[in-house]
């Protein structure tokens, strides 16, 4: 009886991975890995890895000389957050990750229509939503594996160069950061996938996605400062409450951008001493206990940022799902 139930469970598992969704996902992953675009993305990820390893090699001797690593409670998190001749790891990732998500999503759907393969796919006995799910899952899987490898190599280089071992708390925080990064990648992938459904030409989808990324990354902070300057202009003598409210308004407007949400979340996860993502008054600073926060408290601080990124990703994918399901494919 136990043998029959075991065989039945194994057959269910095999049939699950041979479902139309997994067949389409494996096909998308195989096509992606064999493409020249993926090789270019590998070079870009290798540049990130080289920059991070160079930063470790440059900064670790100075940290050892100043006893910063030995006195720090989380020496390996310092590798991800400190900056020198190169930006810190999470700041560099926040700039490059949207490019990776956009580059793997802007032609996921419209290229199938242009080549005529979408008509042949839907004639097969599969549900239409499996097509869209596979086209979203495959890039997320590939990018997750890439950044897991890059982060692991950075940690391994730090272990070899310093001779220190990674603490369990640091491992948990690093995995929490990787999860936040995957959600951040998913947001830009979902947006580029939506543009791939809206626009029939891949060039139009790519330009629209890159335009939004450039606006939110470069022009949106400048526009925010101009708006706040008009609403609350700087005065020669401003009270502490006015300065506090002005800075809080700037941060709240900037958090419309997913890049700002990712940076805020990464700062709290990778820096256990951070107790607030907004401005602090003197009373709050005096009442703060000079000790690192537990991982649960750090996650509670960034819960709104993480929820915002997940909600944005789900909303974009839901719109893509609605438009794709209502689209006439045979024409």
Could you list the spans in which at least 5 consecutive residues all have pLDDT below 50?
3-15
The residue fraction in helices comes out at over 70%
Distance between the termini: 53 Å
Give the CA-based shape: globular
Strand content: under 5%
Order of helices and strands: HHHHHHHHHHHHHHHH
Number of strand segments? 0
Which structural class is indicated by helix and strand composition?
Answer: mainly alpha
Number of helical stretches of at least 4 residues: 16
Multimerization status: single chain
- Estimate the mean pLDDT confidence: 81
| Overall number of structural domains | 1
Protein name: ABC-type transport system involved in multi-copper enzyme maturation, permease component
Transmembrane segments: 36-57, 88-106, 136-162, 174-198, 210-232, 300-324
Keywords: Membrane, Transmembrane, Transmembrane helix
GO molecular function: ABC-type transporter activity
Task: Tell me what the structure shows.
- With 331 residues, this protein is an all-alpha fold.
- It has helices at residues 2-17, 20-34, 36-65, 68-71, 75-81, 89-103, 110-115, 117-122, 128-162, 168-198, 202-231, 240-254, 258-270, 282-287, 295-301, 303-325.
- It is globular and about 65 Å long.
- This is ABC-type transport system involved in multi-copper enzyme maturation, permease component.
- Pfam families: ABC2_membrane_2.
- The chain crosses the membrane at residues 36-57, 88-106, 136-162, 174-198, 210-232, 300-324.
